[in-house]
Amino acid sequence: MMICHCMAITDADIRRAMDWMRAADPETLITPGKVYRALGKRADCGGCLPLFIDTMRHADSLRIPMHLRAPSRASTQGEPHEGRHQGHRVSQSGSAE
42: which of 11, 50, 69, 75 lies 20 to 30 Å off by Cα? Predict the structure, then answer.
């Protein structure tokens, strides 16, 4: 099925590009931009993006590697969030001057 008429990209092209990326690097995060680059093309008018993303979503090779799905909490245990102090917001400091 034709997904992008501007760049002549089919659903099979998208699946093949995703399979190639997954085979080349099993831990890569596959994005629409990476698929376009793998095909040597670019998004022109953007009208195809919803269908392009839907095609990607239904491909088996889109899976995210398990260790990248949820960040480990063990590495941030006891550290302040983003290195900020607890009362870093003006609304939390009590005076808004």
Answer: 69
